[in-house]
Amino acid sequence: MLMRTDPFRELDRLTQQLMGTSGTWSRPSPMPMDAYREGDEYVIALDLPGVSTDAIDIDVERNMLTVKAERRPITKGDTVQMELSERPLGVFSRQVMLADTLDTEHIKADYDAGVLTLRIPIAERAKPRKIAIGRDSTQKQISG
């Protein structure tokens, strides 16, 4: 249901983790993601702990889904002396190419416990359906 667009994204993510670099608007850090089908919906779950909902931006253009978020530093008083800072700050982004079989007009987004969950319905035209066989009206009935 989704297509990967950048085979080197995981390598970039590992390099950023090892180097301790933060994402910027021009070069955002990737965010961890799970994607799976659940019944008639396709579900994408993105980890965004510590990000407020007003700092999350979700866009769909044609079949390209883009999620951007920014984790901002927490304001600390003048008396605070930082001993350890491992939680990444900055800009995070993920782009996912969605298949034509998904209904991008009806995406639902929920954010709970630091996880952004997007639910994308499978398009009606992509669902399996039975085809009825009609009678051929050109055949003549034989009476007998």
TrEMBL record:
<feature type="domain" description="SHSP">
    <location>
        <begin position="24"/>
        <end position="136"/>
    </location>
</feature>
<comment type="similarity">
    <text>Belongs to the small heat shock protein (HSP20) family.</text>
</comment>
<dbReference type="InterPro" id="IPR031107">
    <property type="entry name" value="Small_HSP"/>
</dbReference>
<protein>
    <submittedName>
        <fullName>Hsp20/alpha crystallin family protein</fullName>
    </submittedName>
</protein>
<dbReference type="Pfam" id="PF00011">
    <property type="entry name" value="HSP20"/>
</dbReference>
<dbReference type="InterPro" id="IPR002068">
    <property type="entry name" value="A-crystallin/Hsp20_dom"/>
</dbReference>
<dbReference type="InterPro" id="IPR008978">
    <property type="entry name" value="HSP20-like_chaperone"/>
</dbReference>
